[in-house]
């Protein structure tokens, strides 16, 4: 997605890192850079608002479910592999307590940041 206008920070970069922005998991300089982008780019601001609303809804509906520690560590391990640019094995993550299989990324994991955060 791009609004067609030139920006200091490209729309694709902003959208690629939108969840890091929402979770406040990026350096302060990048947070500022993205906030400035949202102030001048309404399509990206709209996408931000939509993703923020989805995150709040998920937290409200699923935020009280406890996640088994081993599941959380497996998922966080995969996230670290992805961030490091390494290949991630295509295998299901098994929840031992429930005895069922979930695809990675589908179980509510909670977030170290506030769901939805603040509007830019």
From TrEMBL:
Protein name per UniProt: Mycothiol system anti-sigma-R factor
Chain spans, region Disordered: 86-120
Residue stretches making up the Putative zinc-finger domain: 11-44
Organism: Streptomyces chitinivorans
Origin superkingdom: Bacteria
Signal peptide positions (record): none
